[in-house]
Design brief:
Elements: E1 5-10, H1 12-16, H2 20-29, E2 33-40, H3 44-50, H4 60-67, E3 72-78, H5 82-90, H6 103-107, E4 116-118, H7 122-132
Antiparallel strand pairs: 1-3, 1-4, 2-3
């Protein structure tokens, strides 16, 4: 069912700072099962396509530059109520406003470098997962 899967990326800042293991530990300890995962790097075209919804926003260029500066970990996660539960686990976009114990409170430095992406809807989870993974890469 659609509400059992979500998409996430561990962003370049968290990868650079060595937080992949800690973030993945927190994800799996929260009951998520990883059904697809890879270390990859987005090209400029990838980032522009993935974040096209923000194209007219003033931060678009900075976002694309940030997301292409280094590797990311892309993953599809499975759990009942996956999107909502994962959004709760990662916390507010601004780490200063994120709840204690959330991924962003622990690992994010700022609104712009906020460690992790989480899909905001079941529909976007499917779109974002399909952007990064072929069907044969999901288990």
């Amino acid at each position: 069912m659609a509400d059992n899967r979500t998409f996430t990326m561990i962003k370049p800042d968290a990868v650079e700072n060595g937080h992949i293991g800690g973030i993945l530990d927190q994800i799996t300890a929260s009951g998520f099962r990883i059904v697809a995962m890879k270390l990859t790097q987005m090209t400029q075209r990838d980032a522009e396509t993935f974040y096209a919804i923000h194209k007219e926003r003033p931060f678009f260029g900075e976002l694309v530059e940030f997301m292409t500066r280094g590797p990311i970990v892309a993953a599809i996660l499975e759990k009942d109520n996956a999107v909502e539960d994962f959004r709760t686990l990662i916390g507010a976009t601004n780490p200063e406003e994120a709840a204690e114990g959330t991924i962003r409170k622990k690992y994010a430095k700022s609104i712009g470098e906020n460690a992790v992406h989480g899909s905001d809807s079941d529909e976007n989870a499917q779109i974002e997962g399909a952007f990064h993974f072929a069907g044969r890469e999901m288990f």
